[in-house]
Design a protein that fits this description.
Largest sheet: none
Structural class: mainly alpha
Strand content: under 5%
Number of strands: 0
Order of helices and strands: HHHHH
Shape: globular
Distance between the termini: 8 Å
Radius of gyration: 15 Å
Helix content: over 70%
Number of helices: 5
């Protein structure tokens, strides 16, 4: 595995791993996304979402050390980032924190695709 691919996957994994902080509660979720959460069901769903992002981030970072999982890591990472970008596009009034997530996911998706193409065609 090339250095660029390893660094990219570790960064993308970290991007996915950071929302795991949201599992700690409402304050962390507000910091991450800039939204007020008062409904206990929505809070539960957002905290569960944080756990799922931790799993995705862990898988992506794990694949750097266990390359048999690279294809799965690329696919899961790309689906995760692309789905947020696609879902966010038609919405006009994002919080500043969600705008940041949008741009981070766009840049991360491009990095992931470049890394995957490089690994596929130039290895």
């Amino acid at each position: 595995m090339k250095l660029f691919e390893s660094i990219t996957l570790l960064l993308i994994g970290l991007i996915h791993f950071l929302p795991l902080l949201g599992v700690m509660g409402v304050k962390q979720l507000k910091t991450l996304y800039g939204v007020d959460l008062t409904d206990s069901s929505v809070i539960l769903l957002m905290r569960h979402r944080a756990v799922l992002f931790g799993i995705v981030g862990g898988l992506i970072m794990y694949s750097v050390f266990f390359p048999t999982l690279l294809a799965v890591a690329y696919i899961v990472g790309a689906i995760s980032m692309a789905s947020f970008v696609v879902l966010a596009l038609p919405i006009k009034n994002h919080t500043p924190a969600l705008k940041k997530v949008f741009y981070i996911d766009m840049i991360g998706l491009i990095m992931l695709l470049v890394s995957c193409l490089g690994a596929t065609f130039f290895s």
